[in-house]
Design a protein that fits this description.
Blueprint (H helix, E strand, L loop, with lengths): L8 E7 L22 H21 L3 E7 L14 E4 L3 E4 L13 H10 L4 E4 L12 H4 E4 L4 E5 L6 H11 L2 E5 L16 E3 L3 E4 L7 H13 L3 E4 L2 H5 L6 E4 L3 E6 H6 L2 H7 L4 E5 L2 H4 L5 H4 L1 E2 L11
Parallel strand pairs: 1-2, 4-5, 7-8, 10-11, 13-14
Antiparallel strand pairs: 1-15, 3-4, 6-7, 9-10, 12-13
């Protein structure tokens, strides 16, 4: 079974001081305030995280867990924004838009990857934060590892110059478009709008503002062999686009329970031709404005030896 688009291992960061990040609330329309006190919210998020790790491991996914004990990194549970890995032994480290998110970068994570996987080089773009540039990893870009396309929504989280630089380094073609939700608000991260599996793609085409670009995006997805599952804006609000295909005992689609509940039976039937749904219950974590895909930093590297921590 090919793992090019659906890796068999992920990095996850266990949050001990989870909360909804005040520095990202202005441009993340998916964020909501938790009703409970900070201590209760943090405990609930931790329990959801541990249950998600157990479910992923039970499905055969290799999960590398790192504990975050910092009180200054409320979004640490979403590591896919600060680094990505790529076949051939390549790692990218990214500049972040919000100042407190920059503290999430951890070189012990990169060193662990070097120990357990064949890492040829690490390209660190994070210094470009000093120039006001941001490119928030596989939140800002949804990568087609088979067709080598980087689908990217225009936003303050995805600088166009830096996107071009990434695509040159990592051999992707940038495909950029504008997207807004039903209330006319800009979509802040591409991975809340779409997710690409081996044989299908989840995307809300209606949220792409330019009709011509909408047709072009759908056509590119179909050209690369994907069945396009066109989501509604309401399904996007339920995080149905924020899913990641993985390989465990079989190919699976990791998504939140909320996302699974808003998918229609015909959409699920298309997915299940090639992947089994693995719903994870993370309602507290979702108040921070991200869902399951954001929690998973995919490992597209060749292992030196299989380990689990």
């Amino acid at each position: 079974m090919s793992q090019l688009q659906a890796p068999g291992a992920v990095v996850m960061i266990r949050p001990h001081h989870f909360c909804s990040n005040p520095e990202t609330r202005d441009d993340n329309a998916f964020q909501t305030l938790a009703r409970e006190t900070a201590d209760v919210t943090s405990a609930q998020a931790l329990a959801e995280f541990d249950a998600a790790v157990a479910a992923l491991r039970g499905a055969g996914v290799n999960v590398h867990v790192f504990d975050d004990i910092s009180t200054e990194t409320p979004d640490s549970v979403f590591p896919n924004n600060w680094f990505s890995t790529h076949a051939g032994g390549h790692v990218a480290v990214y500049p972040m838009y919000a100042a407190n998110r920059r503290k999430e970068r951890r070189w012990d994570v990169i060193e662990r990857l070097k120990r357990d996987y064949r890492v040829q080089d690490v390209i660190d773009y994070s210094g470009l934060e000093q120039d006001g540039l941001a490119l928030e990893g596989t939140g800002a870009m949804v990568l087609d590892h088979i067709g080598r396309i980087a689908y990217t929504v225009k936003s303050n989280r995805a600088d166009p110059v830096l996107l071009e630089r990434f695509c040159t380094h990592f051999n992707f073609e940038p495909m950029v478009f504008e997207a807004r939700d039903a209330q006319g608000r800009d979509v802040y991260h591409t991975n809340v709008l779409m997710g690409i599996g081996t044989d299908y793609a989840l995307i809300c085409l209606d949220m792409i503002t330019d009709p011509t670009r909408r047709v072009e995006v759908a056509a590119r997805l179909e050209e690369t062999g994907r069945r396009v599952i066109d989501l509604t804006p309401e399904q996007i609000a339920g995080f149905a686009g924020n899913a990641l295909e993985l390989t465990g005992h079989s190919r699976l689609l990791a998504l939140s329970s909320r996302a699974a509940e808003v998918l229609r039976a015909d959409q699920i039937a298309i997915i299940e031709r090639s992947a089994t749904l693995l719903p994870l219950s993370i309602p507290t974590i979702e108040t921070a404005g991200g869902s399951v895909r954001c929690m998973l930093a995919a490992i597209h590297l060749s292992p030196r030896e299989r380990t689990q921590s």
